[in-house]
């Protein structure tokens, strides 16, 4: 893809992955059943073709601009910055996209690809429901059949999004297996896909899964970082001193990080959900507390027990409640390019309220994890320094959850 | 000669196909699955597939998902499954055992150590659902060193050209996933199966077994004649699980029920 990054040497670039077999270092790959393998190869070919087809790019640009509402603003959060007394915080306002999160960037790209491939039925997994809503939205826009798999626990804690999907004409299947969260929804979506391969496109919502999904979703989400990189230079005349994003599967983070990967002077921070604490046993921090393993089509850091059984993740945020992470993140961790840190449920709840009060912006609980880390970092930095926080989604959907945690009855 | 090859050679001489019943290890407990495993050959199993319970069996339907959950609840680990097979081997040195499961527990165990231990326990072949030819190289050299056959999976979606590539180095037998779907849901028609075998025979001389969606004795008979063997999994587990008590524990009826199902399948395959 075209890039405005001043890469002195392509050979030394961190942006050229994965290799032709979908590996990022030891991570990634295509660990899928044979029934799906030919489809992965077909998808890889179709995407490679679309990526270099100007007509596809033009079509995507058209929808991103006129339907999604891009570019999204980069907002200098002055009151938050002043209150914290350190670095200047800039919010990349992905919550202003249509459907309220960064998810539509990827979904729009993939739905145009699915249409090119002649697929008429879309299946998708969703955690918080943001990806499900985005998928249901484009299916409504293009008149495609839409089946969304969502863990039963998440259906319960994300009721507004479930109803939105219904309104958009999607069928929502609550998944009761396991803990009824994103991992279980992913299994069930894969089962649907394998049974309906002829007409069905599996619209993966994050930078995980078998190759080419991690690379493709990253490419579609990279619009976030490409814009942010230009915007911060327009507003401050230079690159930022830190970029922070929350990580579940890691699509918003990969999207904002990727265009900065070759800017060695820009530290990048991925914030995992620590849940009740990294050592509480109730966490979703796959890098901090996981080991490499193979799940859902790729090798990556996973929360697993001593016998290679996947353990349940926990986070207050349904969107981060996943025991794995995208394989490119795992690689970026291994090579030390991105710093993976974490924020607890409690920190996220506090950040949620702080941002709402000081900036009039209600963040998604997912994004509140990124804000929480900015709250930790900014006071230790100079006032002349800058931090970009990816505000990946809006928090309206989380109002009932937050109210419950604060002991407020709605 | 490997147990797998000896078995198919013998069946060829007998002029019939194989019955490959499946059991989920530790479902619903170690003792029951060991007892079932031990009695399967006498009930008519020619080869046996032993499922390794995994937390996220994304290619399996509800019946095997539940069996895996019960197995895990009963403490199933890969090490424990190998111990089960080791116990079985004390009394049976000829029935081929095929371990079937997902890659992560093997990956976590360590592929080299796993292949050594599996061979020592008496495993003959491996079916690893989510380790396609594109990734199998990380396991293949160790399996080969221990004489373990990695059973290649083929599917209705596998194009002819790809069949030739992936079956080039196949060993043991070839597993044909006869439907596009998960285990224990729908079934392929006789016509579909015949067409598939024509395609597969063009790409391999190895025995071919059909699995996924084979439920009744009639289906097993048909499949074992069109191909070289029929895998039956969910249908056995479903009938056995129906005998468990409310806590999911085995009852006096559990073992006889499973064995009776296998006998009826075997009779059809042999009849």
From TrEMBL, chain A:
InterPro entries (alphabetical): Trp_synth_b_CS (IPR006653), Trp_synth_beta (IPR006654), Trp_synth_beta/beta-like (IPR023026), TrpB-like_PALP (IPR001926), TrpB-like_PALP_sf (IPR036052)
Catalyzed chemical reaction(s): (1S,2R)-1-C-(indol-3-yl)glycerol 3-phosphate + L-serine = D-glyceraldehyde 3-phosphate + L-tryptophan + H2O
Annotated keywords: Amino-acid biosynthesis, Aromatic amino acid biosynthesis, Lyase, Pyridoxal phosphate, Tryptophan biosynthesis
E.C. number: 4.2.1.20
Domain of life: Bacteria
Modified residue annotations for N6-(pyridoxal phosphate)lysine: 103
Domain Tryptophan synthase beta chain-like PALP: 69-393
Cofactor: pyridoxal 5'-phosphate
Molecular function in Gene Ontology: tryptophan synthase activity
Top-level EC class as recorded in UniProt: lyase
Gene3D superfamilies registered for this protein in UniProt: 3.40.50.1100
Pathway: Amino-acid biosynthesis; L-tryptophan biosynthesis; L-tryptophan from chorismate: step 5/5
Parts forming coiled coils: none
Quaternary structure note: Tetramer of two alpha and two beta chains.
Family annotation (PANTHER family): TRYPTOPHAN SYNTHASE, TRYPTOPHAN SYNTHASE-RELATED
NCBIfam families the record matches: trpB
Function: The beta subunit is responsible for the synthesis of L-tryptophan from indole and L-serine.
Protein family (similarity comment): Belongs to the TrpB family.
Protein name: Tryptophan synthase beta chain
């Amino acid at each position: 893809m075209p890039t405005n990054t001043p890469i002195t040497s392509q050979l030394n670039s961190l942006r050229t992955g994965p290799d032709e077999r979908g590996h990022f270092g030891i991570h990634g790959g295509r660990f899928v059943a044979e029934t799906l393998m030919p489809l992965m190869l077909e998808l890889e070919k179709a995407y490679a073709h679309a990526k270099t087809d100007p007509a596809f790019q033009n079509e995507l640009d058209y929808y991103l601009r006129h339907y999604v509402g891009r570019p999204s603003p980069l907002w200098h959060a002055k009151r938050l910055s002043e209150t914290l007394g350190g670095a200047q915080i800039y919010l990349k306002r992905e919550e202003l996209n249509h459907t309220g999160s960064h998810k539509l960037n990827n979904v729009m790209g993939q739905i145009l690809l699915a249409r090119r491939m002649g697929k008429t039925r879309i299946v998708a997994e969703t955690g918080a429901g943001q990806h499900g809503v985005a998928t249901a939205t484009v299916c409504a826009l293009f008149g495609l059949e839409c089946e969304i798999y969502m863990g039963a626990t998440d259906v319960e804690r994300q009721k507004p999004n479930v109803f939105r999907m219904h309104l958009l004409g999607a069928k929502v299947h609550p998944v009761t297996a396991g803990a009824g969260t994103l991992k279980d929804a992913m299994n069930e979506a894969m089962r649907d896909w394998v049974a309906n391969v002829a007409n069905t496109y599996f619209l993966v919502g994050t930078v995980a899964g078998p190759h080419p999904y991690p690379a493709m979703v990253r490419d579609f989400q990279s619009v976030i970082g490409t814009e942010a990189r230009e915007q911060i230079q327009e507003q401050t005349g230079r690159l930022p001193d830190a970029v922070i994003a929350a990580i579940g599967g890691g699509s918003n983070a990969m999207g904002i990080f990727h265009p900065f990967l070759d800017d060695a002077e820009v530290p990048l921070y991925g914030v995992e959900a620590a849940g009740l604490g990294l050592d509480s046993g109730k966490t979703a921090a796959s890098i901090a507390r996981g080991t490499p393993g193979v799940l859902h089509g790729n090798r990556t850091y996973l929360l697993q027990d001593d016998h290679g059984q996947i353990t349940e993740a926990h986070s207050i945020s349904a969107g981060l409640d996943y025991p794995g992470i995208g394989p490119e993140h795992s690689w970026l961790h291994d090579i030390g390019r991105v710093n993976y840190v974490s924020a607890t449920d409690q920190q996220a709840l506090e950040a949620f309220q702080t941002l709402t009060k000081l900036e009039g912006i209600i963040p998604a609980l997912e994004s509140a994890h990124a804000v929480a880390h900015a709250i930790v970092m900014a006071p230790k930095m100079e006032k002349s320094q800058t931090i970009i926080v990816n505000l990946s989604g809006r928090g309206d959907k989380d109002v009932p959850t937050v109210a419950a945690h604060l002991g407020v009855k709605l | 000669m490997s147990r797998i090859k000896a078995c198919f050679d013998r069946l060829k001489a007998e002029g019939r196909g194989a019955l490959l019943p499946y059991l989920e290890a530790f479902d619903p407990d170690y003792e029951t699955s060991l007892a079932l495993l031990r009695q399967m050959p006498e009930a008519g199993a020619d080869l046996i597939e032993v499922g390794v319970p995994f937390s996220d069996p994304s290619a399996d339907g509800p019946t095997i998902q539940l069996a895996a959950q019960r197995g895990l609840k009963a403490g199933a680990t890969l090490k424990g499954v190998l111990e089960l097979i080791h116990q079985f081997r004390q009394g049976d040195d000829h029935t081929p055992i095929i371990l079937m499961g997902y890659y992560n527990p093997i990956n976590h165990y360590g592929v080299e150590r796993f292949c050594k231990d599996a061979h020592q326990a008496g495993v003959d072949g491996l079916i690893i659902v989510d380790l396609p030819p594109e990734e199998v190289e990380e396991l293949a050299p160790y399996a080969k060193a221990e004489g373990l056959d990695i059973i290649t999976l083929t599917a209705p979606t596998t194009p002819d050209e790809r069949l030739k590539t992936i079956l080039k180095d196949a060993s043991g037998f070839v597993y044909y996933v006869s439907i596009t779907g998960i285990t224990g849901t729908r079934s392929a028609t006789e016509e579909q199966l015949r067409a598939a075998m024509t395609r597969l025979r063009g790409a391999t001389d190895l025995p071919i077994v059909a699995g996924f969606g084979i439920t009744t004795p009639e289906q097993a008979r048909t499949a074992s004649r069109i191909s070289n063997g029929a895998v039956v999994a969910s249908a056995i587990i479903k009938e056995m699980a129906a005998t468990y008590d409310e806590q999911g524990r085995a009852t006096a009826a559990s073992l006889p029920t499973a064995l009776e199902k296998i006998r009826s399948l075997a009779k059809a395959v042999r009849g």
